[in-house]
Model the fold of this input.
Amino acid sequence: MERYFSKDYSEARQRFRAAAEARQAAIAPYDNPSRGPAGEALFTDAARLGPASARRVLILESGLHGVEGYAGSAIQLAALDRIDLPADGDVALLLVHAINPWGFASNRRFNEDNIDLNRHFIDWDNPGDLDNPGYRDIADIVIPADFSEEALAASDAKLEAYRLEKGEQALRSAIKLGQYSHPEGLYYGGLTPSWSARTVQRIAEEHLHAAEICGLIDVHTGLGPFGFGECLSGMAPDSAEGKRCSAWYGHVAHTRSPKTSYAGSAASILDGYKRAAPWPVWTPIGLEFGTRSEQVVRDAVRFDGWLHLNGGALNPRADAVKAMMLHAYSPDEPAWRQAVVKRGLEVVNLGLAGLSG
Done:
């Protein structure tokens, strides 16, 4: 199972395309105009198993939060190696590799515009109120002043004071709900459609035109018990979509529940696909794999935010920060990698079975 993991974005892309070609999948590349940290070309690649006329399509997507793409890419490689489609010829598996290729290549959670794409899929014709006053309160303290334990401790002390004054939920919402006022800050949602959002629209138009029923499995890492893969729905459990998610996948966590530990953004990729292709009946989920403690993961993002403000890949501390990001989002322990691929394949097979049923 470990063999499906790649060392970087370029290797992951090369292996994905080779595996797709070996399965005789139709491959569509989408060229991102940005370049990676080594000047490499960046692409999202969509590979399709099954006929273009299929009415039932399951999408397996990787790399929305760039650095999380290692796990998703590994599951996609394993799926190309091990998954067989139902024999009726009316089901397709569409693998969308590295929907945020710049973030994947840069080992960042965010994209080339510093956008967190799971805070970004908004109806831009009618965005509504995007204000997050909590983030404005902490914008100047959440990112440490420098790359040191002392700076992190000083930032933590100020955040703790905010938590004591406003409450735990207020702090969580301030940090993770998404913000649209500080373009260089954390969890920025953007103000206009990004390249990735436009690419999702293109993928929907080019690959889902015949679809009547669609599933989506969007792979993430960073939250939950080590190696545990949890299915997430953005809809209420008693909604028609929520019931389908449970019927297909069993236990599903609902990210907009008041008691959830997830951010519960109303602007996620799950909403993005439904808006890009409103004609099929959708059953979309996130598949979240736990890694380290929530504090370890959050601190890595905060230091990566510091790096973004201080030269990025050109900063002499860049390698140390990127090592923190990989430690937080793509553990190299064999047991974790084996668990990710095993659970990923299980969920893909559940999705295909639910789609077929």
Q: What stands out?
A: The chain has two domains: 2-126+187-300+316-356, 133-176. The mean pLDDT is 95.
